Q: What sequence folds into this?
């Protein structure tokens, strides 16, 4: 009986592991990616608001909020939570 349990447990674990490896990335996978991207965006924007200065008079190419880091580089945070550095010539005046 003990030997049967000893052989059955690894077989069961291997079969469960193979079920978990399905590559179906349907709407659940897309939703998880959207949630992850939004979480990253909010986290980076929050950290930028605390650590860096906000450039009030200018916006990014598509109207994004511009931050200035301690090395005087201008950047905005994209939809995936990445900092996108832009030159000063690419900045636009903030609409009233």
A:
């Amino acid at each position: 009986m003990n030997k049967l349990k000893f052989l059955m447990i690894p077989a069961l674990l291997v079969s469960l592991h193979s079920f978990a490896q399905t590559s179906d990335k349907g709407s659940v996978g897309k939703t998880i990616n959207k949630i992850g991207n939004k979480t990253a965006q909010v986290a980076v924007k929050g950290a930028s608001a605390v650590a860096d200065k906000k450039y009030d008079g200018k916006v990014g190419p598509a109207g994004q909020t511009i931050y200035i880091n301690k090395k005087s580089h201008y950047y905005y945070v994209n939809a995936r939570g990445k900092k996108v550095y832009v030159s000063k010539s690419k900045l636009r005046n903030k609409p009233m």
